[in-house]
């Protein structure tokens, strides 16, 4: 029997996570300071749009904080019973981030309904000035998180929140101008609803991606049946069973399989060919492969799961 492991993706993911820690810490500090500012001014000025923006900024603060904690935890070496380390902490943080966004968006939509019937007077100038400061904070955080958004689901969650919050700050700023110039108090709940509706579909997508990883579903774009057929076409391979493909965390796809061969097969050659196939065609560099004769395969078929 032969076993093969490739660790390219894992090493790359850990190295990349190290680059994100400082950026996440800087974004966390900026967002925390401006969340406090927006929440205080929003409360004093009775601006739901500003409070909406502060609420989304709170999820940014919590999301970036969880991302920072999760990436720091994931970088620790595996020990004890944690044979895969704490990589899944990033995915759990992304899911918690999505839940927070759902809650904030639902609350803002609920509050906005009441304000459409009886819009309160809103202090437009403080609302406008604070939104402008919040926009600057969001743009700084946006720039800090942009690099990691394509490679880490966790960072992507924080990035999407900051993106939504940036647009929300623009909306609040416009609302402040209209309120100050024309006294259009209805523009405040309208902008709050618009921000909530913008955030919800992106939050749903983030939650879906996190749940897909947590239930160990095959990565998007990977056809497991096609992979089975490709492995089965390798020279000397007569059967492929116990094939599993899943994502450990962002950028770390993993596979395991049993490859049954003829009695005279070169197990080492089969193992190398299978590793090359998974790496080049499916971009899976971490694969645990068991190459076994037919008599061992019968034992696998006796298992009930």
Automatic annotation (TrEMBL):
The Cation efflux protein transmembrane domain, residue ranges: 26-215
Alphabetical list of InterPro entries matching this protein: Cation_efflux (IPR002524), Cation_efflux_CTD (IPR027470), Cation_efflux_CTD_sf (IPR036837), Cation_efflux_TM (IPR058533), Cation_efflux_TMD_sf (IPR027469), CDF/SLC30A (IPR050681)
Limits of the Cation efflux protein cytoplasmic domain: 219-293
Swiss-Prot/TrEMBL keywords: Ion transport, Membrane, Transmembrane, Transmembrane helix, Transport
Location relative to the cell: Membrane
Annotated TM spans: 24-44, 56-74, 86-110, 122-145, 157-178, 184-204
Topology class, membrane: Multi-pass membrane protein
Cited SUPFAM superfamilies: Cation efflux protein cytoplasmic domain-like, Cation efflux protein transmembrane domain-like
Source taxon at top rank: Bacteria
Family: Belongs to the cation diffusion facilitator (CDF) transporter (TC 2.A.4) family. SLC30A subfamily.
Protein name: Cation diffusion facilitator family transporter
Species: Saccharopolyspora taberi
């Amino acid at each position: 029997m032969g076993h093969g492991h490739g660790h390219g993706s894992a090493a790359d993911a850990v190295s990349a996570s190290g680059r994100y820690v400082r950026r996440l810490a800087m974004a966390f500090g900026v967002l925390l300071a401006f969340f406090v500012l927006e929440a205080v001014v929003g409360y004093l000025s009775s601006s739901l749009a500003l409070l909406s923006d502060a609420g989304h900024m709170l999820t940014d603060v919590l999301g970036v904080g969880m991302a920072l904690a999760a990436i720091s935890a994931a970088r620790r070496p595996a020990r004890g019973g944690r044979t895969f380390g704490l990589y899944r902490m990033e995915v759990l943080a992304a899911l918690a981030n999505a839940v927070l966004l759902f809650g904030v968006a639902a609350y803002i939509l609920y509050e906005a309904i009441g304000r459409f019937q009886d819009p309160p007077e809103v202090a437009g100038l403080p609302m406008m000035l604070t939104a402008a400061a919040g926009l600057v904070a969001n743009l700084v955080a946006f720039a800090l998180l942009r690099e990691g958004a394509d490679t880490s689901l966790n960072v992507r969650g924080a990035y999407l929140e900051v993106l939504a919050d940036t647009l929300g700050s623009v909306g609040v700023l416009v609302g402040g101008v209209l309120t100050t110039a024309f006294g259009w108090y209805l523009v405040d709940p309208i902008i709050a609803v618009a921000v909530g509706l913008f955030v919800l579909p992106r939050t749903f997508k983030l939650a879906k991606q996190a749940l897909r990883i947590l239930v160990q579903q095959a990565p998007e774009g990977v056809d497991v049946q096609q992979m089975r057929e490709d492995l089965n076409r390798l020279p000397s391979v007569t059967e492929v069973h116990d094939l599993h493909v899943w994502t450990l965390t962002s950028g770390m796809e993993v596979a395991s399989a049993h490859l049954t061969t003829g009695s005279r097969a070169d197990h080492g050659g089969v193992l190398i060919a299978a590793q090359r196939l998974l790496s080049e065609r499916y971009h899976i560099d971490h694969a645990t492969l068991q190459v076994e004769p037919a008599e061992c395969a019968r034992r696998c078929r006796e298992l009930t799961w």
